[in-house]
Amino acid sequence: LEYTEGIFPGTREELVKKVKESVKESRFKHILGVEKSAIELAKQNDYSTEKASIAALVHDYAKERTPEEFKKTILDENLSKDLLNWNNFIWHGVVGAEIIKNELQIKNEEILNAVRRHTVGDVEMTTLDKIIYVADYIEEGRSFPGVKLARTIAKTNLDDAVSYETKHVLEFLLSQDKVIYPKAILTYNKWVAE
Ligand code: GDP
Ligand code: FE
Ligand code: FE
Ligand code: FE
Asked: Is the ipTM of this complex over 0.95?
């Protein structure tokens, strides 16, 4: 896969190398799995495989940064102060997008938005947002009850896969008494509720 759209200033191999150096081996494997799934979903939905590849390769790029770095980035980039009340699960996407912009010279907002939205989704989601959100959930390394059905649904209809994932992640978080990020409820209301 040669990059030709000018979104990342380098080859796929150069981007893969930077990502590999930024995360532990198990997460790097997950990221390559997300890329494979994202490229398949892109083909099925007549979408750019290059954008799918780049967004997938960077989606968890910042996942292993410290809380101190995320908090500094929130302040330096003038992001919403409310983000300071949250933690890694929300920071690695929303704040991670700024780290990707600064360190990887990827300025394309479609790519950055897909990273920002990959954990809890959003009310409005582009095709790329949906591809990364779903690929993250169904990549070949994932094994949880329901992942096979999620893969089957994703092959048929991307919106239905967004809905299935949103519902089942929320059910899981509720069963574990986890705090729910408010936007996750908005995503549920848009993509699941009648
Ligand atoms: P990953 O980065 O590949 O592990 O996947 P995600 O970015 O999709 O999710 C990161 C973590 O955040 C997972 O453990 C999710 O279960 C968790 N998560 C997603 N939404 C919420 C939420 O609303 N509240 C809480 N507490 N955790 C969430
Ligand atoms: Fe993630
Ligand atoms: Fe996810
Ligand atoms: Fe991920």
From this structure: yes
